[in-house]
Amino acid sequence: MSDIQTRVATQVQLPTGYFLEYGGQFQASQEANRTLSLLSIFSLVAIFFLLIKAFGDWRVALQVMINIPLALIGAVWALHLSGGVFSIATMVGFVSLVGITSRNGIMMISHYLHLMKEEGEDFTEYMIVRGSLERLVPVLMTALTAGLSLIPFILAADAPGKEILHPLAVVVLGGILTSTLLDQIVTPAIFYKFGRPSAERVIAERKKIAMIRA
Q1: pTM exceeds 0.90, yes or no
Q2: pLDDT above 60 (res 122)
Q3: CA 50, CA 112: separation in Å to the nearest integer?
């Protein structure tokens, strides 16, 4: 529709007092895009503040949200390979990915903090490796469960009624694949590089509690 608007604007000369108005499905699509864009921004902000509330540190919240661009890589790649176009359905898929991929980072980083707070680990490379390996199976299981449930919608691209479900499934499955794989590399590295302030706070709380109990 944007191509039509461009060609009409450059090739059609309207008489004075006349104007064109694009309505119908195109107008509804534009309004839906604006609504989803606002909701997407609101979701990102809400997730960020909820993560701050949960972890007590904005740096950890940012580290968790790094998974979102990792998911977008796969989502855009899958959308391109499928020959799809950006639509309301794909936008809903992108919004859904925000929550799905944030979960992986939460599982990983919360386990690092648990190991340091409850099991006496220090902020070391060994702790990072241990925490990543212990969370590998749960992350893969949840990713496989979500991914396998989307395959029927992807295979039934031409089936009646799948015009919305198919592009949504393509986007979500592509995002899950890249976020799950890259999460095992990027999240541990990012936490090891920038997570020391949060780790030291957790370790200090553990030592304080140990002194009180002693």
Answers
A1: no
A2: yes
A3: 19
